[in-house]
Design a protein that fits this description.
Shape: globular
Number of domains: 2
Helix content: 40-55%
Number of strands: 12
């Protein structure tokens, strides 16, 4: 997956669209009867709100975690399956491609019979590399499959000229997902490295390499990726966009790394003629190009072959799919069973033709009045933030006016795009599942590359309508909520305002808050990277943010491992700011109306419970450890408890005493 417009901030942690169908639509609705009455809300609100849910919702065997986001994805997955298996005539060429792609993937007998034939050209090209220059062209070809081998190349907004798209050269991707897996030396990390080496070797051997070359190739992959990891900063250091902007002309890039054949590399990517490139880390590019050119030929070949297999793993024959699952599912995330084939094929179809699927999804399952109702609620949250900024005691008038201008500039997208993606150039063959996946990946890479040098398309969406997702883009100055998210338990027309503001309202406030978190605040109302804060206000913001870093760094997640408060800072700011905004919006909504208790709960209690219920979840220990390294979101327990303990409104709603654990002695607040 290409990283487009890197300033996106996503509502929920990344996970696949599809999973095991275990919940009915009815069970997704807010239910105050599921509270754990043995728990004290003032001692552990998460346990009080979620204890019964966790007991009744064990992790499915084909999952590494389970929560309401996954549950809603299950409902959407069932709808998507109906679309893919429908084969209804008269729905147009895109629909024919969707059903053909899915049917070809489901034809397991043909997939097994053809094996790796569709990759013959790529693997032969790698095998025939004779020189370092040849290997650079081969590297570019592998990258067009969507593999961020050695580098990532993608279009991004020019961070200081937000109306234009700039080519970006970024850190490459690591097979073990995070640098710490390569650099730490504790027993568990060493065990995972050994498992990874074995996995790479098995994938290479499964693709036809002799056993001795496969083992040597796995060693080469591990050595190269360890070098890449050592050249990368920790994730939390990459949160500052000012450190990621180094715009160079081609002449400057050639001066930076004169030994690299840029004149061959960029054309091999299919990139348009380039005037400038943003190099997120010149030091990384200098080091890794030198390392690459110094590798032995067989080491380069093994690394490239591995990345071809890794990029296409989900579409490969069964023996390689099983091997991929063994490492990435079982060893890294603790998943017990592979998903059934239809779910994997549905995910591949979404990856290839997602907006074509989404067009049918919204036509059949997202009424237009839902879009208008959701938009009205977003505007209510926006008004609450306007009031908050206007009254902030720590912010000067100069910064305040800039902040208000930015708030008014936000574009709000709800449901689905106004203009659907064009798939007319993508060929789909009913008897070539792996070839379809290869063509789809290269089609998408080429579509992205064509953006470079052009004006930004502000109508484009970066999530599919059927996804359960919301995000904010600091560079685009927009917030987005998909049709897939705007359903129970997050958005429910049958529920009272307190529940909807606690669930979807909190999510909307979360995304608005991202526009003013430690990352988003560095972009102005046009999406340009510009410091619009007075020095005094910046210092006050940093002091408030430091409170959150210190608070969350004390929370224990798994074993004795604590949260990285710096890595999770942006999401923690958004969680706290978002819940406050939603609460303020609810109070505006309730003003002047008679107070109505429902199910024995006040509106305020229902608000906080609805928020907490959306964060209930179970997770394997392996995934919890992985998320500590890679996920900027806090776990559900601390998204709930870490937020409410900072709010006097919560403490009043549940009559908590100042000595209770859910009452922070030094509450943190920025927004």
């Amino acid at each position: 997956m290409l990283r487009i417009y890197a300033a996106l901030c996503v509502l929920c942690s990344a996970s696949a669209l599809l999973g095991q169908q275990t919940a009915s639509v009815k069970s997704l609705r807010f239910d105050p009867r599921q509270v754990d009455k043995s728990a004290d809300p003032c001692a552990d609100f998460y346990q009080y709100a979620c204890g019964t849910w966790m007991k009744n919702h064990p992790i499915p065997a084909d999952r590494s975690a389970w929560d309401p986001y996954y549950e809603l994805r299950e409902k959407n997955a069932d709808i998507v399956r109906g679309i893919l298996e429908g084969r209804e005539p008269g729905k147009g060429e895109d629909y024919r491609k969707v059903t053909t792609y899915y049917a070809a993937c489901m034809d397991e007998a043909t997939v097994e019979k053809k094996g790796l034939q569709a990759l013959d050209g790529d693997l032969r090209h790698i095998a025939e590399i004779h020189s370092a220059a040849d290997s650079v062209e081969a590297l570019a070809q592998v990258q067009t499959l969507g593999a961020n081998a050695l580098f990532a190349f993608y279009p991004n907004q020019d961070l200081k000229d937000a109306g234009h798209v700039l080519a970006t050269l970024d850190y490459g991707s690591l097979g073990m997902t995070d640098r710490d897996y390569y650099l730490k030396d504790d027993p568990e990390t060493r065990r995972l490295r050994d498992e990874y080496r074995t996995h790479v070797g098995r994938m290479l051997e499964g693709s036809g390499l002799p056993s001795d070359l496969s083992l040597a190739g796995a060693d080469a992959v591990l050595r190269l990726e360890t070098g890449m990891a050592g050249a990368m900063p920790p994730r939390e250091q990459r949160r500052d966009p000012t450190t990621q902007y180094h715009k160079l002309t081609l002449a400057q890039l050639e001066d930076l790394v004169p030994s690299w054949p840029w004149s061959k590399y960029f054309p091999a990517l299919g990139a348009p003629s380039l005037a400038d490139v943003n190099v997120t880390s010149p030091d990384y590019v200098k080091k890794m190009t030198r390392v690459w050119l110094d590798l032995a030929p067989e080491e380069r070949k093994a690394y490239l072959r591995w990345h071809v297999l890794h990029a296409m793993a989900a579409a490969l024959p069964a023996r390689l799919v099983a091997e991929d699952f063994h490492f990435y599912g079982t060893m890294l995330r603790g998943v017990k069973e592979m998903q059934p084939r239809w779910k994997r094929c549905a995910q591949l179809t979404n990856d290839a033709l997602g907006e074509a699927v989404g067009k049918v999804f919204v036509a059949e399952h997202f009424p237009s009045d839902e879009k208008q109702r959701a938009l009205a609620e977003v505007r209510t949250i926006q008004a609450a933030l306007r009031d908050d900024i206007s009254k902030l005691g720590w912010m000067s008038d100069d910064t305040r006016q800039e902040a208000l201008r930015k708030l008014e500039a936000f574009r709000i997208k709800v449901g689905y795009p106004d203009r659907w993606r064009d798939y007319s150039g993508l060929d789909i063959d009913g008897a070539d599942a792996l070839g379809n996946a290869i063509r789809a990946n290269r089609f998408e890479f080429a579509r992205q590359a064509r953006k470079i040098g052009k004006a930004v398309d502000r109508d484009e969406w970066f999530s599919l309508p059927q996804d359960v997702d919301g995000y904010q883009s600091a560079a685009l100055v927009e917030i987005v909520f998909t049709a897939g998210l705007l359903q129970p338990p997050f958005f429910d027309r049958t529920m009272d305002d307190a529940v909807n503001f606690g669930a979807i309202g909190r999510a909307m406030g979360h995304e608005f808050s991202h526009g003013f978190d430690d990352h988003g605040r560095k972009f102005d109302e046009h999406g340009n990277l510009r410091d619009w804060w007075t020095p005094q206000d910046s210092a006050r913001f940093e002091e408030g943010a430091k409170c959150f870093v210190e608070e969350y760094s004390h929370f224990v997640v798994v074993d004795d491992k604590r949260l990285n408060g710096q890595l999770t800072l942006g999401e923690n700011l958004a969680d706290n700011g978002g819940l406050r905004l939603a609460y303020a919006a609810l109070q505006r909504q309730l003003a002047g109306k008679p107070i109505q208790n429902l199910d024995g709960l006040s509106p305020e209690q229902r608000f906080f419970l609805a928020f907490a219920e959306t964060q209930c979840g179970n997770v394997t220990d392996q995934t919890a450890r992985n998320r500590l390294l890679t996920d900027p979101h806090s776990p559900g327990r601390w998204r709930v408890n870490g937020t409410v303990r900072n709010m006097a409104e919560f403490q009043k709603a549940f009559a908590c005493k100042v000595t209770d654990p859910m009452v922070s002695p030094h509450p943190c607040r920025v927004w």
